[in-house]
Specification:
Blueprint: E1 3-7, E2 10-13, E3 18-25, E4 33-39, E5 46-52, E6 57-60, E7 68-73, E8 78-83, E9 92-99, E10 110-111, E11 115-120
Parallel strand pairs: 2-11
Antiparallel strand pairs: 1-3, 3-8, 4-5, 4-9, 5-6, 7-8, 9-10, 9-11
């Protein structure tokens, strides 16, 4: 079984920064494909950024490129999402998802509980 625990959300003004963390437990973290999705009120969940173990690549949604940075720290079983120059449209609940088998699919079988990010204008 895999458990994911997110933290780091909060309220920030436009242009500010936050760093989200997701700690994983349960299986060998090194092989994980893992990433961040977000869901705003009334909208569908959307991909933000993530690492694909099978391909060895990190991907970003176009809307966050140049502002968000994804980091995977295997020593700490943790991934981080550094979010800079935040905008009101970044307001959402951010979820960490993972596939411990390292597949290329974004259809992660495991999810955390989410952490709320609110960007005020």
């Amino acid at each position: 079984q895999v458990q994911l625990v997110e933290s780091g959300g909060g309220v920030v003004q436009t242009g500010g920064s936050l760093r989200l963390s997701c700690v994983a437990s349960g299986r060998s973290f090194r092989r994980y494909s893992i990433g961040w999705f977000r869901q705003a009120p009334g909208k569908e969940r959307e991909f933000v950024a993530g690492y694909n173990w099978a391909g060895g690549t990190t991907r970003y949604a176009n809307s966050v490129k140049g502002r968000f940075t994804f980091v995977k720290d295997d020593a700490k079983n943790t991934v981080f999402l550094q979010m800079n120059n935040l905008k009101p449209e970044d307001t959402a609940t951010y979820y960490c998802g993972a596939d411990p088998d390292g597949s290329t699919s974004l259809n992660y079988p495991y999810w955390g509980q989410g952490t709320l990010v609110t960007v005020s204008s």
